[in-house]
Predict the structure.
Amino acid sequence: MKIAITRLENKAAGDRALCATYGHDCYTVSPLRAELRMERVAAFVDAVHRSEFDCLFFTSALPAGVVAPRLKRWPRVIAIGPKTAEILRESGIDAEVLPSFYSRDFVPYLGDWLRGRTVGIPRADVPNPGLLDGIVAAGGKYHEERIYALVPTGTDLALDAADAVLFTSAMSYREARWHPRVDLLLVAIGEITADAMRAGGHPPAVVGDGSLAGTLEALNREGI
């Protein structure tokens, strides 16, 4: 099966090789692009070096790739998935990995440890009140540094050659310009993305666990 995967421009490293291991071919379509705010990156790195945080939480691979190479020291570090952890390791940071691919599991993972501690979170300029409210409810504090914006590319997704389109986030679905087809299989990387697709009138036929590998496994299990 040929799968179009929504990714940020130039952020699809390894997708094609991973798809091949599951017997599929894939290519990237980009409904969004990232606009880095380097002054905010520098401010966040300075705050880490001033020991303002008891923990860092990297919610995706992009901030890990931007921030980690600039760090000379760091506190406890949590990564949302193995890909993010792998990027952190490239800079010598041995991060803990959440047991799922959802930021909502950050607070349950840390539990009572959060009380009285401050978490530094470099991430996209996209609201995530569930995560932030959860940290406060657990007795912790947070400093969220929105180091990049996600901007719609405004171009139609090239889906004519695709048998399936895999949306990798709720925002990538909501901001995508595309034309559904009866024979185009709709796939969501996880439940949050699936909920957005259902709300938009495009219920996915396959829903993954929040990771690309898990989504490909789910696709193969369905035998579509």
Notes: The chain is about 35% helix and 25% strand. The two ends are 9 Å apart (CA to CA). The longest helix spans residues 38-49.
